[in-house]
Amino acid sequence: MSEYFDNIVKIMTRYWDVFLVTGVSYTLLLSVITVFFGAILGIFFCLGRMSRFKVLNWLCIAIVEVVRGTPMLLQLYVGYFLVPKLLPFAVSDFVSIAIALIINSAAYVSEVFRSGIQSVDSGQTEAARSLGLSSSQTMLRIVLPQAVKTILPALGNEFITIVKDTSLASTFFIGELMTSYLKVKGTTYLTMECLFIVGVIYFVLTFILNRLLCAFERRLRAND
Known about the structure:
Elements: H1 2-49, H2 54-68, H3 72-86, H4 93-118, H5 122-130, H6 135-165, H7 177-188, H8 191-223
Helix pairs in contact: 1-2, 1-4, 1-6, 1-7, 1-8, 2-4, 3-4, 4-6, 5-6, 6-8, 7-8
């Protein structure tokens, strides 16, 4: 057992930058990009699902259901091979994987937005329409601002989930934590020690983010 922990110390002494600089930075960058653009795209999916235009409605429903009904790893493979062929310019593997993650996140976030919008009392929508506001003005000025309080904690949970789900991107060696594990393991041949280090880093990241989210939720409740 002492040899096991000695190996962990040696690995961290020599490869700390691979784990804590490259791995963590790529993981957080990929997570932030995914949740930010996923939230924007998720709004469009949500509004599309609630639209009266049948074609747009069915298209958004189809995309959301397909994404939610298939494994993320499969979607990453599709993004990795398909995105470079669809775009008229060259993109890196990181961008291809990020786009696949964004679409995956948007499908789930759209349901979060939909539940948040539906939680707003319909009487307020009727009151806004009776005052002469259009449906789009009512949505932007009345419904969405109130739905944000319900949505933000769920978006925080989505961010924490994405931090962990980026581990699947190691299949394509784009630089996040599990890619760091594969690189160091390939050099040292110390599998369990490297896994332990990556596991601790993931736990620390998600624990800190979870504590921040809980503090944010308490502040929201205090302001009600």
